[in-house]
Amino acid sequence: MFDTDVIFFCCIFFLVQGQIKNVVMRMKNRSFRLNRSKKKKKILEKRYEEKLENKVGNLGIYADVEENVKYIETLLGKAGDLKIRQFTIQYKPETKAAMLYLDELASRDANQDFVLRPLMTYSGLFYKDTKKDVWELAYESLVQAGELKVEQEMKEAVDAILRGDTVLFINGYEKVMVIGTCGWKTRGIGEPRAESVVRGPREGLSETLLFSLGMIRRRLKDPDLRVKMYSIGKRTKTSVSLIYLEGVVQPDILKEVKNRIQRIDIDGVLETGYIEEFIQDQTWSPFPQLQNTERPDAVVAHLLEGKIAILVDGTPHALIAPAVFTQFYYSPEDYYERFHIATFLRLIRLVSFFISLMLPALYIAFVSYHPEMIPSKLQFKMASGRATVPFPSIIEALLMEISVEILREASIRLPGPIGPTIGIVGALVIGDAAVSAGLVSPAMVIVVGLTTISSYANPSYNAAISVRLLRFPLMISAGIFGLYGVMLGLVLLLLHLVQLRSMGIPYMAPYTPLNTSDFKDTLVRMPWKWMDKRPSFFHPKDSQRQEEKSEAQDQKNGGEAS
Amino acid sequence: MNKPESGNSSQSGVTPYESFAFIYMSILGSGIFFLPRTAAEVAGPDGFWVILVSGFIATIFVYCLSKLCQRFPRRTCISFIPEILGPSRNPQFGRILSFPFFILLGFYLLFLIATNIRIFAEILKIEALKRTPIEATIFILIFSIAFAAKTKPYILLKMNEFLVPFTLIPIVILLFAAFQNGEILNMLPMFQMNLNFFGNAIFIFIYVFVGYEIMLIMAGYYQNTDKSLKSHLWVMPFITMIFGITFLTSLSVFGPYEIVKIMSPTLELAKETRSPMLILERLEAGVLIIFLINIFTTVANFYHVLVRMITEIYRFPEKANTTITWILFPIVYALAVYLKNIQELERWIDWLSITHFIVIGFAILCLVIAVIRKKKGSPAHELDHPGKKVQESEDVS
Fold it and tell me: Which of A145, A289, B42, B267 could pair with A502 as two cysteines, CB 3.0-4.6 Å apart?
């Protein structure tokens, strides 16, 4: 009796205790979750500071090599890719030294041939009789590298290792030699995939910032070309460079871009997209306010117009700021091919822009609200095609559009050779089957096909995405109010576009504010001979592209600018 | 991220073309639907001369109003009319004197907005959206317009500027119809009109040009007042030409007897335009939708000016504009749906045309007084927010 009672109470006690514990734990968890975002940020910051400020902070270099090596090894958590080579410099007196670098970030060949070999072998062979200081000798003659710096602080040494440089400690000296040996494997220079042209350079920017810079420099041999380097991202420490032409770019715009870049405070930057979202004028706009390009020639052309390019290490996409609406519909090829075809192609792009934006909406409006506007012969055909379709036209259009979007998304993810096949199977087989099954009308298939193809006629992908998104609200408003809804949608869209700015430049320039002198490079692309001025809406300091009006000069400048 | 302050001063400045577009789009409202009928009703085939002469008279009005605004650069009528009327020692008295005018102007704008929207909604119901309730179309229209009305002046001006070329599309279609179906005989005989009737016709017809009064407020936001106001004068010949074309094309197709029986000859004419080259059949819904641009900008301009006026009279901060826009929204909606039918709407229009003369007359009177009393505004102030301006000018006086 007594035993069972005790056991019973004990059981209850434990159960209750367990429950209380659970509750307490849950409450703890909840409070933790509430403050999580704040706390997390704080913790991250704290840890980072601990690591680099408190631990390394103002710490100088030890005189003892062993101690330096040990310190860095512990700091990096005995990383597997940290290569430590301790050796002796064959010089009187024999001196201990250590070389540290990260494998595959620093060039192994350079380290062996131009750092290790001279220090280990040549020092003993050629410099036996000189009575120079070891450090000085190493700095002046032995270490054979173009980029060589001496630092006094441990922080600099750690940074250098993480950057891909090699550091060299010599026993007895409280300083470190930082040898520029960055040399990682890169993808070869390839053709830009999203912006291929028939005529024009085939090379695209590289993932390595310096290669990209080189490509731009090669095309623009102007001493006024300025490159400002920033390091953004507390943890990634990504190199970001700001490129512009001094004397061409408007200083106010430059200042604004610099300010906005310096204000970025994030732990990592992996692509220019991060920077774009941080520095754009309006976050909620569906329209891209900065252009991106993979083409070095396009970057140079934009620089010459007084714009600013932003390159980020690790991605081949350069950002162009500021950007106006029309420039997303220009291809670099417009300037390389003859101006007739460029003008014609721009017209085609304008038409395709409207088709991809409005065609489904117009279809819905015509079919459900204004059938009298469809030519009567076609109307009969369309009515007979729609006779079996059980849905209203808005549902029909939405279904088709969404399935096309799914096809699009799927064909990107599918492995290379299958992608196009699925596209064809999806478009042809499913489309045809859907029509014969009476799910959609044949006209709808044409509309959807045209819309999708038209959206690919746009030279820049990010502008095409915005149109792709805006199509759906327009379709819905067409479903509710017919053409009236479409028009109201368009006017509101225009209102948005008109108030949009990119780095302070009106987005709809040069149409509004209207400036007829800039019309030479809009819908119509004039011959280079006559495009003697840079676009005035970017307010370039030097507005002239061509100084003198002589024929020879014109042609020369035209050739250079393209 | 903060809003950019970069760029340059020319961005916020109003170009002469922008002010041209603003006045042009404000005049070109719902009047264009009835214009050929009104002209034919009052003058038969001589309507064209009525359009020309009333266009000329309207030009004189525009000139006077522009002169008045020019005397007080970068200030709106809310700030300068009290100064003109009141004694310089007691500015409060001037404010009291001019207050009835401001109230009249406010209600005038409010009713103009409501009638414009109602006219469009009625025609939309007849021609395009037959089964959609008129309350819904009116609601969505005012709702969209409110977004345009609450923006900053320069954004609205830019929108006007961008849309000007699109208003010419219907004109091209009308011309096409006239070439297809028009007959010169329909336009004759001319010069049959009695001079007494002529004067009366002009008095009725001049209401079609309504809309330029809002420059009294909007001119305060122009940077280069002289140039902008000159461009106002260019609007009048241009718009007279458009009205003339609209009338002549309608007249040539329908003739003076048929035209008065059609509710909206302009749209009826679009119905007549048929060609396999145009891809679409029966263009009237399409043309009507393009006319939506006119209505949208006209009403947005009126609405915007009304909001600015209220903000300035009560010296609200700049932020209040959005609130006032949404407060006015139900009032405008109620006014627009209040009327039972088009007959009542026409009675409103009669009242509005009389008010229009009072407003213009008062403004011209102000100009005369300003000239006599040699009142001129100081252009030195930077106008960011007109409410600030009033205080400053009062401090000076």
Answer: A289
Measured CA distances, A74 to A55, B201, B206 (Å): 11, 97, 90
Query: Å from A23 to nearest chain B CA?
Result: 42
The CATH number of whichever domain residue B258 belongs to comes to 1.20.1740.10
Q: Which residues contact A389 (CB under 8 A, 6 or more apart)?
A: A396, A438, A439, A440, A441
Looking from the CA of B188 toward its CB, the CA atoms found within 13 Å total: 3
**ipTM of predicted assembly, 2 dp:** 0.89
The two structure tokens encoding residue A366: 């015509």
DSSP A9-40: HHHHHHHHHHHHHHHHHHHHHHHHHHTHHHHH
Answer whether A498 sits within 8 Å of B1, measured CB to CB: no
Which pLDDT belongs to residue A55?
Answer: 60
pLDDT of residue B377: 74
Number of domains chain B is built from: 1
**Nearest by CB to B4, which of A499, A501, A539?**
A501
Whole-angstrom Cα distance, residue B271 to residue B318? 46
Q: In angstroms, rounded to a whole number, what is the distance separating the alpha carbons of residues B20 and B236? A: 10
Per-residue pLDDT band for B144 (boundaries 50, 70, 90) equals very high
A486: enclosing H helix or E strand:
helix A483-499
Q: Would residue B290 count as lying in a domain?
A: yes
Cα distances (angstroms) measured from residue A462 to each of A175, A267, A275, A360: 49, 25, 15, 21
Average pLDDT, chain A: 84
How far is it, in rounded angstroms, from Cα B393 to Cα B397?
6
The answer to the question of residue B239 being in a domain is yes
- The pLDDT value given to residue A56: 64
User: Could you read off the pLDDT of A470-486 as tens digits, one per residue?
Assistant: 999 999 999 999 999 99
Any chain A CB within 8 A of the CB of B174?
Answer: no
B280 touches chain A (CB under 8 A): yes
Residue pair A401/A390 in contact by the 8 Å Cβ criterion? no
Q: Please give the residue of chain B at the shortest CA–CA distance from A252.
A: B6
**Which residue of chain A comes nearest to B156, CA vs CA?**
A495
In angstroms, the CA B22 to CA B174 distance is 24
Contacts of B290 in chain A (CB under 8 A): 487
The whole-angstrom separation of Cα A453 and Cα A310 is: 31
With H, G, I as helix, E, B as strand and everything else as coil, classify residue A428.
Answer: helix
**Beta strand pairing status for A176-179 and A166-170?**
antiparallel
* Cα(A415)–Cα(A422) distance, integer angstroms: 10
B9 has a chain A CB within 8 A of its CB: no
CA distances in angstroms from A258 to A240, A263, A395, B3, B173, listed in the order given: 11, 9, 48, 14, 51
| Yes or no, beta carbons of A494 and B159 under 8 Å apart | yes
Name the token pair of A468: 């792709």
Domain span at residue B195? Answer: 15-368
A87-133 tens-digit pLDDT: 888 776 778 889 999 988 888 888 888 888 888 887 777 766 677 78
The answer to whether residue B139 neighbours chain A at the CB level (below 8 Å) is no
Q: Is B18 in Cβ contact with A495 (below 8 Å)? A: no
> Residue A332 corresponds to which tokens in the numbers above?
């670099």
Task: Decide: B188 and B46 in contact? Cβ < 8 Å.
Answer: no
pLDDT-derived band at A528 (thresholds 50, 70, 90) equals confident
The identity of residue A114, as a single letter, is F
Q: Is A92 helix (H, G, I), strand (E, B) or coil?
A: coil
Between the alpha carbon of residue A387 and those of residues A435, A475, A479, B192, B196, the distances in Å are: 11, 21, 19, 58, 62
- For the whole model, what pTM was predicted? 0.84
- What's the CA gap between A32 and A329, in Å, rounded? 49
Does the residue B388 lie in any domain?
Answer: no
B82 within some domain: yes
- C-alpha angle with apex B20: B14 to B21, nearest 5 degrees? 90
Record: contact B4-A503, CB cut-off 8 A: yes
Give the C-alpha separation, B208 to B35, whole Å.
7
